[in-house]
Amino acid sequence: MERRDFINLGGATVGALWVPVWGRRVDGFWGSLTPVPVADKKALADVALNAARQKGATYADIRIGRYLNQFISARDTKVQNVTNTESYGCGIRVIASGTWGFASTNDVTPDGVARAASQAVAIAKANSRLQTEPVQLAAEPGHGEVTWKTPIKKNAFEVPISEKADVLLAASNAALQNGANFVNSLLFLVNEQKYFASTDGSYIDQDIHRIWPTFVVTSVNTQTGKFETRNALSAPRGMGYEYMDIVAAEKFAGPAGLGTITYRDAYDMVEDAKLAAIQAKAKHTAKSVEAGKYDLVLDPSNLWLTTHESVGHPLELDRVLGYEANYAGTSFATLDKWRTHSFNYGSPQVTLFADKTQSGALGTVGYDDEGVKCKRWDLVKNGILVNYQAIRDQVHVIGQTASHGCCYADSWSDVQFQRMPNVSLEPGTKQLTPEQLIGAVDKGIYIVGDSSYSIDQQRYNFQFSGQLFFEIQGGKIVGPLRDVAYQSNTQEFWNSCVAICDQRDYRLGGSFFDGKGQPGQISAVSHGTATSQFNGVNVINTARKL
Amino acid sequence: MAALTSQEARAIMEKALHFSKAEACEVNINANAGGNIRFARNTVNTAGATEDKQLVVQSFFGQRSGTVTLNEFDDAAIERGVRRSEELAHLAPEDEELVHPLGPQHYVDSPAFFDNVANIAPDYRTQVAANSITPAKAKDCTAAGFLQDGSQWQAMQNTAGLFAYSRQTGANFSITVRTNDGTGSGYATRECNDLSKFDVEAASRIAIEKAAASRNARAIEPGKYTVILEPEAGINLLANLIFNLDTRAADEGRSFLAKAGGGTKKGEKLVDERVHVWSDPAHPDVPTSPWQGDGRAYEKTDWVAGGAVQNTYVSRFWAQKKGIKATPFPPNLIMDGGTASTEELIRDTAKGVLVTRTWYIRSVDPQTVLVTGLTRDGTFYIENGQIKYAIKNFRFNESPIIMLNNLDAIGKQQRVSGSDAGITTLMPVLRIRDFNFTSLSDAV
Questions:
Q1: CA nearest B173: which of B140, B149, B197, B194?
Q2: Are B40 and A322 inside 8 Å of each other by CB?
């Protein structure tokens, strides 16, 4: 995603939160919260599919989508921005002469969709001149008329803006009262009302919801001219406004004495902001890390991002095949390694799975954007690379007959393509808590929260940082650290995994704005992990003097 | 889509302002039309055309404002949009930092629109793809690339008397060529406003040459090396310095410009005094719109000169509060260059590393503008004035401030945007001492 596609809602350069702008700005969702009647969408879909067939398409699908977004931002004690966007239209994809064609329109009328269908067929036929391999589409049964909805308890779009703004301001006040100098906070809400129909006989109506509350707290020391930040430990989720409920059972207190709290299926934003202020201030006096090899104990709020970059992306089949070579890159996890059935992606403890059905996850839907029913499958089983993420026109390459169901487009106007499903680390089967895990580490660092991240274009070499670092000596946490980043190689890193806490510690993290493709599209995806231990990882000191 | 003329834009906006009953009202029109083609695995994957036109109406009542966007342009729709923006303004919370519309401004002429780009047809895009794929195939390579081109029109008018109109064209091409044995990769980009300055064949040729030359790279130890950063490599680092020149962040103590005891380091020597980075919306090689979306005029502005930060950008609110000039965010960048080519800088290098592209650059410590990232698509070892062999890619942890302090030589400029930076820049090739590579990458 290019920087120019973003607006800065944070207001400050440091710790600013850049969000992509899509959809058109609207002043309210008049009538939009009530989806277009399914019968109307089905009638329009049939017009498009028939038009495509009449023009010579051997396959066609249509996505009629209304995409609603709401962003509320606050700076210190003031709400700065309430932005609503809405986008409504449809995209039609066809196969004609063995080649894909796509056209989109915001003229969602019988004439409009028929015209777009005809245009899509014309584009397919024109592109077929350059086609070297006809599209091979894996079979998918027609699902008939079905519906799916994110199982939300409270529709965040129906919660008054004042109530949502009050939470941001309460968080700001909590941070400012506890020593923070500045607070930038944000609440993102997404509702995708998507209707999919195809010539396979599927008519799928879905109502998808996502939410992300987040902030950056800054502590400034004017004497030294230094500043420290601590970001929210929330996760973006595929949930409704119930994520903002305060639920004691969903809080995870860190090891005794640290004062850290992380969250599972409900987020206490005010409490987190208060702790962020205290912890940002404490960073000024934390010990600067001594570079070297450490055993790392990574909280799920940190490990999700490492999983995303070093497992999620390299196992996207389109990257492996070279379709993303000019932008996101290719992959070290090549087909020849997979074909050996013995490529050690990780240690035997490591099982990594894809799951588009995981409750509360960002990438969870009933059906993907080409009408495939969603499911769970293994990518790495007991350390061995066993599968990829593939869609209908790719899966034949790996000798499989059914799509994995991970096709997605971020709007009606863009063509759908392979996007990462939720990719997660299976929790350990033996009872193990983070405290027990830390107790067995002689020289290590416990890391909470995500921060700086960078990985090469084939996903070998990476560097990650975090929000909070604690030094472990002789099985005990001895104090906070700063200036920490860990560098490793994907295969070495996952093979250094020696212990994973059990299901009780399993939590989701995620990315709201994962970028891919040209022109760029975003997607949202979650990653579940439990606190895990990785031995002998290279840690660098990031302090510099200007 | 037919072009949006100044007269057409004015007629639409005057209509909207005529309907306004707010204390103040501002109207923007943004329109664009263009197309793209994407290829990979030596075949075209997607091709498309897009166009859009939007009217944005913002109404003001005291410290409250409401904004609506619409894409219908008949009288009834425009009036409905104006009324809705007024309703929303009444419902909005007060914003202490809201600033009212600007009065009339003076804008420079910027030669940014060229018919030869506006008139690009689908056949041209197909031919560009074919001209990349054919020579790549002939060299046992696989090409992946993307071309996008188009025209943009912007106009704004408000009740304070400001009227602005501008139009630009742009074409951007990038190509990655990989050798079919998987051991070499090359990359090149070209971008322009004027198609007569758009040599995409040269980009494809360079990418193919780099792919072949970077095969079978050897590993050398990470550490501090003299590096030659080609423009595509250097811009991603330089942009991280420029994007951190926010006045308010510096004043609030949360920027590398913050000074112990208060105040900022603006005006103090921070980098080599040969460094001169500036913006100019009318620069013939990197022309842009002469005004920002809020109506502020882009002017020729020095960001870094004589080794010191000279200007910082600022919001209109913060400028008013501090009683300073409201300098807008840079529309483009120009870093002064020299006359030496990359080859000439190599000939003059005893031992070093040629970096042709940097990738996945992310902030590590905003206090020192420390960033991490990797080299990609052709990294080479230089000894005694010659490229000796291709080397494996490195991860670096480096601050552009430290980097520009260690400036050794400046060469010729090239127009780039940078895959991480995303800002149109006239960027020179740089030779830097003691560039900090911290680990090796096996990626090709």
A1: B149
A2: yes
- pLDDT tens for chain A, residues 1 to 546: 232 333 333 333 333 333 333 344 444 444 466 778 999 999 999 999 999 999 999 999 999 999 988 888 999 998 887 777 778 899 999 999 999 999 988 888 999 999 999 989 998 888 887 777 899 999 999 999 999 999 999 999 999 888 999 999 999 999 999 999 999 999 999 999 999 999 999 999 999 999 999 999 999 999 999 999 999 999 999 999 999 999 999 999 998 889 999 999 999 999 999 999 999 999 999 999 999 999 999 999 999 999 999 999 999 999 999 999 999 999 999 999 999 999 999 999 999 999 999 999 999 999 999 999 999 999 999 999 999 999 999 999 999 999 999 999 999 988 999 999 999 999 999 999 999 999 999 999 999 999 999 999 999 999 999 999 999 999 999 999 999 999 999 999 999 999 999 999 999 999 999 999 998 899 999 999 999 999 999 999 999 998
Q: What is the CA radius of gyration of chain A?
A: 24
Of A180, A265, A190, the C-alpha closest to A231 is: A180
Contact criterion met (CB < 8 Å) for A12 and B262? no
Rounded to a whole number of angstroms, the distance from the CA of A159 to the nearest CA of chain B is 16
Q: Looking at the complex, does the CB of residue B293 fall below 8 Å from at least one CB of chain A?
A: no
Q: Do B399 and A546 touch (CB under 8 A)?
A: yes
Distance from CA of A394 to the nearest CA of B (A): 13
CA distance A457 to chain B (A): 7
B positions 179-218 inside 8 Å of A (CB): 187
Chain B residues inside the 8 Å CB shell of A26: 68-69
Q: Can you give the pTM of this predicted structure?
A: 0.94
In this structure, which amino acid lies at residue B350? A
DSSP strands (E only) in B140-215? 141-158, 163-179, 185-192
> B31, B88, B35: which is closest to B61 by C-alpha?
B88
- Chain A CA closest to residue B331: A4
Which residues pair with residue A149 across a beta bridge?
A: A207
Most A CBs within 10 Å: which of B360, B377, B379, as the mutation test of the A interface?
Answer: B360
Contact assessment for residue A228 and residue A281, using Cβ atoms and an 8 Å cutoff: yes
Whether A458 sits inside 8 A of B442 (CB atoms) is yes
Nearest to A233 by CA among A270, A261, A274: A261
